[in-house]
Design the sequence.
């Protein structure tokens, strides 16, 4: 048995590949730094958090072990693949008290029809976020949103 096999449990290559495929685009979209507190939610939250830790994002926490909600997180990464948008609603409500006033939110979903994308955007906006941009990737699509107070309404001169 090699020393690598003895020192840590092995994740399957499918788990690593699935995490790698969305971790890079999510981090790029959010513009994360290793000094930011990141909350990871979704069905693969633990795996994605472990991958973030492996990459040096040691302040990342999965939804199951993120502490009490005190607005302490700068970034929320939500992996919502293979789940319904309707089921995202309670998770979004739960997340809100964990996020700081200047937090960014990235929600990754399966590729969808335009009506479903409109529903996702409306759900995010309803919670006080402004969609900054979106991204399409081979394994789904994502949106980046910021709290609306970061984008005050511009007044006419």
Sequence:
């Amino acid at each position: 048995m090699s020393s690598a096999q003895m020192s840590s449990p092995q994740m399957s290559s499918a788990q690593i590949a699935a995490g790698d495929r969305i971790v890079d685009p999510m981090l790029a979209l959010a513009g994360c730094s290793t000094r930011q507190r990141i909350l990871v939610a979704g069905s693969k939250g633990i795996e994605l958090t472990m991958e973030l830790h492996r990459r040096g994002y040691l302040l990342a926490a999965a939804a199951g072990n993120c502490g009490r909600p005190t607005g302490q997180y700068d970034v929320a990464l939500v992996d919502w693949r293979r789940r319904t948008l309707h089921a995202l609603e309670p998770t979004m409500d739960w997340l809100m008290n964990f996020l700081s006033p200047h937090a960014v939110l990235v929600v990754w979903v399966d590729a969808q029809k335009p009506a479903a994308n409109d529903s996702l955007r409306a759900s995010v906006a309803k919670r006080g976020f402004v969609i900054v941009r979106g991204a399409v990737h081979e394994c789904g699509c994502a949106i980046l949103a910021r709290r609306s107070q970061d984008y005050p309404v511009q007044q006419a001169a």
